[in-house]
């Protein structure tokens, strides 16, 4: 007695396989396209960060692009400095110091992230010493969506949970420019400028694309295995 295998799926089974595979491939292509789009954005960001630095006159004449370098001069306003709590770098909790800079001929303040310091090092930061310089080099960052604040106690003196430009203006009764700057360069007066790179999620999209492709292959394999039927023959 011998047995052979036959492969005769029903028409509706072929249709289900076709729909499933096409859907999986479409979703995989969608994720891959998102990854390519983010890669192009990342390349543009790198070019922007390598572009010539704007001075105050150029920045005020036309709103700068995100991550565009700037070289600014003005007078620091240490009375308007705030510390942002619970800012983690390399697994260490600390603070970010934001200090306003008054540009020449401009009544609005420019909020500048002067750098990061650990909790233990905060007591060693002297605001008066940081205010002695009259220039800063950094890059433009536009305010993003504000995080959800579950507690009403988001501000204790100069210690804040998040930087909310509207809340800042109301608190200090002082208008501020709509964009922000974070200082770059070497450590200054104990404040580090080793900012983490922006995670654009491109690698996750590549991973998702690979998963959808694998799902399409598995559907074909399972379809073949399930529809191979044994037939006995004398």
TrEMBL record:
Name of the protein described by the UniProt record: SURF1-like protein
Membrane protein topology class: Multi-pass membrane protein
UniProt keyword annotation of Lyase present: no
PANTHER family per the UniProt record, alphabetical: SURFEIT LOCUS PROTEIN, SURFEIT LOCUS PROTEIN 1
Membrane-crossing residue ranges in chain numbering: 12-32, 209-228
Signal peptide: none
Cellular component terms (Gene Ontology): plasma membrane
Subcellular location: Cell membrane; Membrane
Upper classification of the organism: Bacteria, Pseudomonadati, Pseudomonadota, Betaproteobacteria, Neisseriales
A Pfam family assignment: SURF1
Domain of life of the native organism: Bacteria
Stated family: Belongs to the SURF1 family.
Keywords tagged on the record: Cell membrane, Membrane, Transmembrane, Transmembrane helix
